[in-house]
């Protein structure tokens, strides 16, 4: 049975959220930052533990406010589909304090606009640019403690440039999300520390594909352009930030 899992990726300008997505899907990174100006949809098919999952990864441009209702959501083309996803990935730059404040604001708005009585949508906070560790503005322990203990969200640090913890992020996202949806447990995803080795996921990145070693594999990718878009328009021409 094939399941569909929709994920929204949000973050301030220049944090590398689109670079994370493209590193996961295409195993590529560019030093040239192209700002995301329109919503982009990626449709990878993923095999995990023998089960096929159709991921819908929605890469959104920076938004000023989270839509409070469906009317507001569909009034802005950049926000369409934002309220109906199964999980949120909120990305910040560990070297930029303002980008973390942006994540705090968006997370709070997501919670405030959630429909009463519905299950809680998982939110994962991702600290990108770990390769620039010396420029960190907030100690990792402080962020991790706030996110996990107070916010009850998952927390991962990664490097889109060096493909560090990218695979771990999406494999744990899928495992945690599927568990929450099937077993109706608390949807907050908790990771066993952001310093886990990627090899613990028993996966290896080879070329532009993820080679399956019995746990997790990426079998196909399709990119659908900004809204409105037609299926099959091809891949984007350059990595966005």
TrEMBL record:
Subcellular location, record wording: Cell membrane; Endomembrane system
Family matches, as SMART domains: RAB, RAS
Protein name: small monomeric GTPase
GO biological process: positive regulation of peptide hormone secretion; regulation of systemic arterial blood pressure by atrial natriuretic peptide
Record flagged with keyword RNA-binding: no
Main location: membrane
Higher taxonomy: Eukaryota, Metazoa, Chordata, Craniata, Vertebrata
E.C. designation(s): 3.6.5.2
Family named by the database record: Belongs to the small GTPase superfamily. Ras family.
Keywords, alphabetical: Cell membrane, GTP-binding, Hydrolase, Lipoprotein, Membrane, Methylation, Nucleotide-binding, Prenylation
Pfam family, one: Ras
First-level EC class: hydrolase
Catalytic activity: GTP + H2O = GDP + phosphate + H(+)
Gene Ontology, cellular component aspect: endomembrane system; plasma membrane
Species assigned in the record: Panthera tigris altaica
InterPro entries: P-loop_NTPase (IPR027417), Ras-like_GTPase_Reg (IPR052661), Small_GTPase (IPR001806)
Membrane topology type: Lipid-anchor
């Amino acid at each position: 049975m094939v399941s569909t899992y929709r994920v929204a990726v949000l973050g301030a300008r220049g944090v590398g959220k689109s670079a994370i997505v493209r590193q996961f899907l295409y195993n590529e990174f560019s030093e040239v930052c192209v700002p995301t100006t329109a919503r982009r949809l990626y449709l990878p098919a993923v095999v995990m533990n023998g089960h096929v999952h159709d991921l819908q990864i929605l890469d959104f441009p920076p938004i000023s406010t989270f839509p409070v209702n469906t009317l507001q959501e569909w009034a802005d083309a950049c926000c369409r589909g934002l309220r109906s996803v199964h999980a949120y990935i909120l990305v910040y730059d560990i070297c930029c304090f303002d980008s973390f404040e942006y994540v705090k604001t968006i997370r709070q708005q997501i919670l405030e606009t959630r429909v009463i009585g519905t299950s809680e949508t998982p939110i994962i906070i991702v600290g990108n640019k770990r390769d620039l560790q010396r420029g960190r503005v907030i100690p990792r322990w402080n962020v991790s403690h706030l996110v996990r203990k107070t916010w009850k969200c998952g927390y991962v640090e990664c490097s889109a440039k060096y493909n560090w913890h990218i695979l771990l992020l999406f494999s744990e996202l899928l495992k945690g999300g599927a568990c929450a949806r099937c077993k109706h447990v608390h949807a907050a995803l908790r990771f066993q520390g952001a310093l886990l080795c990627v090899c613990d996921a028993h996966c290896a990145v080879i070329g532009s594909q993820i080679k399956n070693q019995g746990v997790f594999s990426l079998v196909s990718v399709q990119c659908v352009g900004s809204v409105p878009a037609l299926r099959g328009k091809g891949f984007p021409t350059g990595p966005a930030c």
